[in-house]
Amino acid sequence: MTLFYPQTLRNSRGYAESPLGKSFKSRLKTQPPNVTDLGFSKGFTLLELMLVMFIVILGFSAIGLNISSGNDATKLQSAARDMVSALRFAKGQALISHEETTVALNLNENTYTVSDRDKVFTIPDTIALTVVTAQEELEGKGLANIRFFPDGSSSGGRIKLEMNSATWQIDINWLTGQVELETK
């Protein structure tokens, strides 16, 4: 059984044709305009790819520099906080035991100890250590003490930890023995 649709006509080649005169085959063959005809290329040039790669590498190197410089700053801050903890511990020990407690600093070896403790704390060699304290607390070249008394007072002083352009300063109040940390 053959169906006949009156609105579809056949041309001389046997293709179905719409009443508007365009054949289905010719409509199927119609392609979008060629991109190269409009002046656009179908891909990227080597120069464009190299430029993008250069920008990406530049971005990653900037991130890498920030991460590595942050690492040094973290080491300095960590060393300063560790020293503040040791000083506050020494103050607490003096108050509890009713005896003097001393934090001995060795500037030559970048180390410090709390009296009556075997542990020697080491500061990285890349950190410069400076101490300002009472004359009586200096024990020779590169050796200094910060002393805490049972009444809460101390010999007082200032300890500076420096690395590159960053500085952390620890202030020990002689009257109250309070230990404060600040960045400079």
Automatic annotation (TrEMBL):
Q: Which GO terms describe its cellular component?
A: plasma membrane; type II protein secretion system complex
| Transmembrane intervals | 44-67
Give the membrane topology, semicolon-separated if more than one: Single-pass membrane protein
Biological process (GO) annotations held by this record are: protein secretion by the type II secretion system
What are the alphabetically sorted keywords of the record? Cell inner membrane, Cell membrane, Membrane, Methylation, Transmembrane, Transmembrane helix
**Residues annotated as domain General secretion pathway GspH:** 79-175
Kindly list the places in or outside the cell where this protein is found, as annotated in its UniProt entry: Cell inner membrane
InterPro entries hit by this protein: N_methyl_site, Pilin-like, T2SS_GspH
Family the entry assigns: Belongs to the GSP H family.
Q: What is this protein called?
A: Type II secretion system protein H
Q: Which source organism?
A: Methyloglobulus morosus KoM1
